[in-house]
Structures are given as structure tokens and as C-alpha cells.
Amino acid sequence: MKNIGLIASKEFRSHLTSPMAYIVAFVFLLLTGTFFSTYLTGTSYADTSIAGFVEPGNILLLLFASVLTMRLLAEEKKMGTWELLLTAPVRDSEVVLGKFLGSLGVLLLMLALTLYYPLLLVWFGDPDMGPIVTSYLGLILLGSAAMAVGLFASSLTSNQLVAAVISGGILFALWFVGYAADLAPENIGEFFSKISLMYHFSGFTRGIIDTRAILYYLSISALFLFLTIRSLETGRWG
User: Which domain holds residue 219?
Assistant: First the structure.
């Protein structure tokens, strides 16, 4: 646990000293703030919910998770520090979990900055806090899964742009695969729906906490973290 904590802390500080994290956070807040205010204006401020932020925010979260994670392992390979990492007295699982938790901390910080939106609703109106709380829970779980996918993609290549493209491709495939359910036979269509990131997210926006949805996102995170560890093991012995 000590090694994981040290790696996570180092990774978190590394993000905070990199201009990329600030650029990503600025663009994320700018876009979500624009969508949030535009949505409220369109409803004449009658809808005191954060739907204007959450609905586009989940897609933006997938996009920016790919950007935040693209350098995690790809940069190690490109900068020549990969060999040092392989010979360090740490387990592959500790490296993966440390980098994952450090980057997830940055994502959680970005989401924390958006708490300004529900605070505005509380100040000027009387919103239903249930869907707001569950929406943030859904965003955290979705972000966790997205970061795990991004970390896996970063372990596959030394090119950060390629890692971002691979991560984005996997994430958007998992998000939009639910649309294929309408075109496939019933049994296959149901399977496509159940593996869709979008299918499991919608309940959170309605104030529903479904343990199956929570287990799904945690399983996706665990699966891709496991695949990342295996990828590192292949690089260590390959």
C-alpha cells in the first residue's frame, strides 16, 4: 500500500505541474458551464436540475479521460524511463494502481470544481438533491471506468496520440454499443445494451442507485486495470 500511495501522490503532483491538466480542466469547465447555463436559459430557469451539465458532461468526461491518461505509461516508454520502472522494486499492480489513483484524483478535482452548478441552484431555487447526488456518483463511477480504459490504452504504445485514439475508440464503442441493440436480434441486442456505458448511466440521472450499475462500472474498471497489469507483465518479460 505504501508504494501505491507514493506512486499515486507522485502522479497527482505530476499532473498539477503539467499545463495539460490545467488546459483540460479549463476546457471541461468552460464547455460544461456553457451547456449548463444554456440549458437553464432554455427552460426559463424553471428546471432546477443539473441535466444541462450531466447530459453532455458524461461524453466530455470520456473524451478528457482519454487525454488525461494518454501520457501515463506511453510517456514512460518514450522518455526512456520505462526500463527504470521495470527494474524498480515495485510490483506491476502497484504501478498500475498508483498511476490510476493519482490520475483519478485529478478527475475528481475537476468534478469538484463543477459543484458550483448545484450550489447555484440551491442558492436561487429549491432543487431535488437526490438526482444531483446520484448524478455525481454516476459521473465518478463512469470517470473511474474511463480512466482504467485510458491507462490500458497508454500501456500499449509509446505514442501518446495513439494511446488517446485507442482509449477514445474503446470508450465510445462501449458508450454507443447500446444503439446496436435495436438492430440486432433480441438476445444479442439485450447483451449489447447490458455492456453499454450509457445504458447503466441513465438511472443515476433519475435519482436511482442501482447496485447492478455500480458493480458494472467497478467491473469495467477492474477488468481494464487487470489488462493493464498483464500488458506491463508482457513488456517486462517480452
Answer: 2-237
